[in-house]
Amino acid sequence: MRQPQRSWPAIALATLLAAAGAHARDQAQSNDDSAVGKAVAARQASEIKSGDPARWHREDLSRQARLRILQKEIGAAWQEAKNACREGAAAERNACLKEARATYEQDMKNAPAQLDAAPKGSVETSVQTTTAATPPSR
Questions:
Q1: Per-residue pLDDT at 48
Q2: How far apart are the C-alpha atoms of 17 and 26, rounded to whole Å?
Q3: Does this model's pTM top 0.90?
Q4: DSSP of 36-82, one letter per residue?
Q5: Does the structure show a pLDDT above 90 at 35?
Q6: How many whole angstroms separate alpha carbon 61 and alpha carbon 58?
Q7: How far apart are CA 2 and CA 127, in angstroms?
Q8: What is the pLDDT of residue 84?
Q9: CA 83 and chain centroid, separation
Q10: How far apart are CA 90 and CA 40, in angstroms?
Q11: CB 110 within 8 A of CB 74
Q12: Does residue 93 contact residue 85 with C-beta atoms inside 8 Å?
C-alpha cells in the first residue's frame, strides 16, 4: 500500500507549529527568578520573610469603606450581566444591555440605603438572573 505524499505547505506548517510549541514550552520553564537582579531578589526575599503588611489584615468597616465594597460588587455584577447579554441572541442584546444598565443604576442609587438597612459589616444582596426565552415546544 502506497503512502500518500504530503504537500510542502502542510509539512512546513507542521514544522512551524512544532517549533512554536517547543518555544512556548521553553518560555514556560524559564519563568523563574533567574532574570531578576541580585539586589531585587534579596529585597523580595526580605519582604517575603517579614510577611504581609499589617494593613492587609485590618478591616476597615467604616460606612465609607463598606459603601466602596458594595459599589465594587455592584460594578462586578453589572460586568457579568453585560457579558451574559453579549453571549445571548443578537436580536435581544440591546434590550438586555439596557436592562442591565438600569439595574446597575438602580443598585448604585439604592446602595446607601441598603447599607443603612443592613447590620454593621454585612449587606444582603439579591441576584437577578436573565435567561433567554425558550420557544414553546410543538
A1: 87
A2: 14
A3: no
A4: S-HHHHHHHHHHHHH-S-GGGT----SHHHHHHHHHHHHHHHHHHHH
A5: no
A6: 9
A7: 64
A8: 92
A9: 11
A10: 51
A11: no
A12: yes
CA distance 77 to 100: 9
Q: Are 68 and 112 in contact (CB under 8 A)?
A: no
- Judged by DSSP in three states, 137 sits in coil
Q: Is the pLDDT of residue 29 over 80?
A: no
The per-residue pLDDT for 62 is: 85
- What share of residues in the chain are helix, strand, coil (percent, to 5)? 70, 0, 30
Q: Is the dihedral of CA 85, 90, 96, 101 positive or negative?
A: positive
Cα distances (angstroms) measured from residue 120 to each of 49, 61, 63, 116: 35, 8, 9, 9
pLDDT value at residue 31: 57
- Tens digits of residue pLDDT in 57-104: 877 788 898 899 999 999 999 999 999 999 999 999 999 999 999 999
In whole angstroms, give the CA distance from residue 108 to residue 76. 12
27, three cell numbers: 518560555
pLDDT above 90: residue 18? no
User: What's the CA gap between 89 and 131, in Å, rounded?
Assistant: 10
